Amino acid sequence: MTFTRHGIWRGVRQAMPLVIGTFPFGLVVGILSDAKGLSLLETLVMSGLVFAGSSQLLALELWSDPAPILAATLAALVVNMRLAPMGAALAPWLDRLRGWRLWGTLATLVDHSYALSAADQRRGGRDAGFLLGVGLALWLFWMVAVAIGHVFGATVRLPPGHPLYFAAVATFCAILVPVWQGLRRDLLPWALAAAMALAAWRAGLGAPWPLLAGALSGAALGAWLELRRR
């Protein structure tokens, strides 16, 4: 395993197509932050530290006056618990990092950087700088998009169901492509994850429980199947 500047820049280049898909997502977060009364500084601090669009949107949906800080914090924690199995899957790289390399990589780890890095690992990639490069590129453009959305939020009011809101869903669907390992490995875990998430939603459970139910059940089945193959 190596960690090189070349790997970082390769990750930055690989992240560019994903930036196009996540940029509208960031605009939406900025617009909603302005609508909820957050200042530009507060919005940028939240986006820079949390850096997780789904949990930020969930926290903003819960935001009211007075702000339910504990509820919003717990909701963001539950949504971001999916990062734990992602980190475990990337252990061949992460376990060998120390200092700023490790903490910088973990701080910018998101679904998109995980998907690209997991695919790179399977192709025999050994440069952990790739993961940090993808994360840094996504983080930088995320901050720019959120700032633009907040600045122009006062002049732009998107109605519910606007196509721009679908940008996040479309991006998440796109990053499934490099992660897919074939019917034998992924069909059952992915199907179970979808079924559990749908069942939780049909049962009337609000966010983030359908997401958590799908993520944990799919990950558990995938891990069990992997152990059986060994």
TrEMBL record:
Q: Which residues form a coiled coil?
A: none
Q: Does the keyword rRNA processing apply?
A: no
Q: What Pfam families does this protein's entry cite?
A: AzlC
User: Signal peptide position in this chain?
Assistant: none
Q: Which UniProt keywords apply?
A: Cell membrane, Membrane, Transmembrane, Transmembrane helix, Transport
**Any one biological process term the GO annotation gives:** L-valine transmembrane transport
Q: Name one GO cellular component term.
A: plasma membrane
Q: Where in the cell is it found?
A: Cell membrane
Give the stretches traversing the membrane. Answer: 15-32, 44-63, 69-94, 130-152, 164-180, 209-227
Q: Does the keyword Cell membrane apply?
A: yes
Q: Which domain of life is it from?
A: Bacteria
- InterPro entries according to UniProt: Brnchd-chn_aa_trnsp_permease (IPR011606)
How does the record say this protein sits in the membrane? Multi-pass membrane protein
Task: Fetch the PANTHER family from UniProt.
Answer: INNER MEMBRANE PROTEIN YGAZ
Q: Which family does it belong to?
A: Belongs to the AzlC family.
- Kindly provide the name given to this protein in its UniProt entry: Azaleucine resistance protein AzlC
Record organism: Neoroseomonas eburnea
Which lineage? Answer: Bacteria, Pseudomonadati, Pseudomonadota, Alphaproteobacteria, Acetobacterales
